[in-house]
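WARN retry 2 of 3 for item q-0093 after timeout on previous attempt; input resubmitted unchanged.
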Amino acid sequence: MKDEVLKLENQLCFPLYACSKEVVKLYRPFLDKLGITYTQYIALMVLWQERSMTVKQLGEYLYLDSGTLTPLLKKLEHQGLVERHRSEEDERKVIVSLTKAGESLKDQAYSVPVKVGKCVPLEQEEAIALHQLLHKLLGQLTDSK
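OK item q-0093 returned
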């Protein structure tokens, strides 16, 4: 019985991890057409909503550390989709903003959530319940830090 605690099928973390990987895979063909990765996509989604924010705020929003976020933003900047500059009020802060090209990519991205949603074999009610549970768990995990 003691070994039950170490069985992979008894872990909550494993199906979360595996499902996350599989769902991100579903995005790949649609995002490849846009020339971006999933992580770039979620960063752009935040910027399409907010237009401009500090790199720190973006990292907090996406639960990404600077070691992951900085190279991601450099690639987006190299692609001409975002620009970074120092804040005029506080030079320690770096602001990331959409470029015109980054803003125009939004029009091409509208179909992505619908296309991916059609690939996820859940009823709408199940998807909504899962979404709510995951956000509840995420909130509780991050509040406990």
